[in-house]
Amino acid sequence: MVRAAVLPAIGAPLKVAEIDLPDPAPGQVRIRLAAAGVCHSDLSLSNGTLRQPVPAVLGHEGAGTVVAVGAGVTAVAPGDPVVLNWAPACGTCHFCGLDEPWLCAHAGAAAEAPYATLAADGSALYPGLGTAVFAEETVVPERAVLPLPAGVPLTDAALLGCAVLTGYGAIHHSARVRPGESVAVFGVGGVGLAVLQSARIAGAGTVVAVDVSPAKEELARAAGATEFVFAGDDTAKRIRELTGGLGADVAVECVGRAETIRTAWSCTRRGGRTTVVGIGGKDQQVSFSALELFYFGRTLSGCVYGDSDPARDLPVIAEHVRAGRLDLGAMVTERIGLDGIPAAFDAMLQGRGGRALVVF
Length: 360
Known about the structure:
360 residues; alpha/beta; six-stranded parallel β-sheet; 18 strands
């Protein structure tokens, strides 16, 4: 038995309980978690914004050590440090064939089947986003584990599994920021901090961080922001003033709210690129006039998992970590236990802090 933070029903509070994990079946890997990041997507799963079978163990951003493998597993062995991949590509679907593994049609298959049981009554549990890392140990498919490159601290490596791959990919793959370009980043949470660091790595010029909390200015500047704007009615005007009156070459929205997406679009220069990373609800509607779509010539794009191929991108990101260009620890503003996850959810709702990290 292992301890886990269990979501008994959508909208219900998480409860720390003991669960029973099976031995890994053929093609599966059992992992002892070192750490797990608390991501806004976990909050969205818990409140029903994103679909999640329940009862479930949430958590999808994690790193740990392999303790056992099922028959046929060759990618990792017991004792190997690994990072969890919550969107493992099948390699055979239409999107994988297009070399777009972040859109894999079968990436979420593991989340749809029970993977463990609640020790108290034997009821079936589902793995949040197929990984269930809000637990001391988890069992996942082989393709959901990535060997951790040498030289990256195991605990901080948890952030690589979502926030960093997403933020790095948003800059380098989706928006394709070029040296000297101006970048506006909306939302200074875990992903936003990764976007800011990645913009610095890309050689961006003016980098404007936007947030509803003035207390995040120091955090944003440490991550690479050259300017900080308190989110308000004049946000787009302030960003244009900071970018020579033109607007940002690139705007990256990490909040997932209709009004923030609209503002990010409005602060982007003519011919610029607006990339939406934040996950909003289906009731969040964004409107554009036909005339402005023509006149401004901007590109608006969604961004799933940073448009990343984790197997390709993880070694590149690890080199940035080893070279000191990417500081994983600087993204963590709180280290907690399993029982601290509800408070971390509340902090996200209130716009406080960067990434909370569950350390086992």
